[in-house]
UniProtKB/TrEMBL annotation:
Keyword Isomerase: yes
Protein name: Enoyl-CoA hydratase/isomerase family protein
Keyword Nucleotide-binding: no
Family: Belongs to the enoyl-CoA hydratase/isomerase family.
Alphabetical list of PROSITE patterns matching this protein: ENOYL_COA_HYDRATASE
Alphabetized UniProt keyword annotations: Isomerase
Taxonomic lineage from the root: Bacteria, Bacillati, Bacillota, Bacilli, Lactobacillales
One Pfam family linked to the record: ECH_1
Domain of life of the source: Bacteria
GO molecular function: isomerase activity
InterPro entries: ClpP/crotonase-like_dom_sf (IPR029045), Enoyl-CoA_hyd/isom_CS (IPR018376), Enoyl-CoA_hydra/iso (IPR001753), Enoyl-CoA_hydra_C (IPR014748)
Amino acid sequence: MYETILFKIEEGIATISINRPEVGNAFGDKTYDEIRLALEECSGNDEVKTVVIRGEGRFFSAGGDVKSFKEMLDAGTPVTEDLVKMAGAMGRAPKLCQKPVVAMINGAAAGAGAALAMAADFRVMSESSSIVTAFINMAFPGDTGLIYYLQQALGTPRLMEYLAFSKPIKGAEAKELGLTTLLVADEDLESATYDFAKKLTRLPLKAFARQKAIVNEFFYKDLEAFNNREAQFMHVSAIEPDHAEAVNAFLEKRRPDFNK
């Protein structure tokens, strides 16, 4: 059914695994839709009590696929508003899922990957895990609601520092900042995540779903409008020279030269 993710249900726990390890689990167009659809499936499936999102291989997700950015630029069709809105729908999907959603952050969660992790109800990180905003490296403002989620968690002054310099937030710092629910040793990440997910399966899930609903209604009510504004700004940025310079510099493994 799915091409870019793996999906299974065992003992009440649904696992959604981003399955593009050859590109660091970077998102393609299908990945955005498939993650959203899998979360919608979990929401309506009584067999599912809890959801775990993870990445196959070394990374949770590297975010956007830089090679696809290059292909779009070469084709004269840089990132569109519709594509960013599709990504935004994925970024909202964990919030809209009626089941508890846990992000198991193996390796780096960057850009849209960081947004997906932050959209989960709970995060489990290891000492070597990291959350990276990353968008500025592509001369992009950001999408998938990451700015929205981090602003609520960090406050605006600290947020601006992480956005501007894309400093990785490692596991210990993430715990100090309140970004992760659990911080565990690298070798314990998977077992700790599923032990935690198992605890969540024993919650009164209808009550938990209503908790999520009221939080969404009063604290995330303008998230979709935020995603729409992101789409406008992302497209404008995609057609400017700085984005092409960022993509080419990344692929050529050199420092970009912006603001020409």
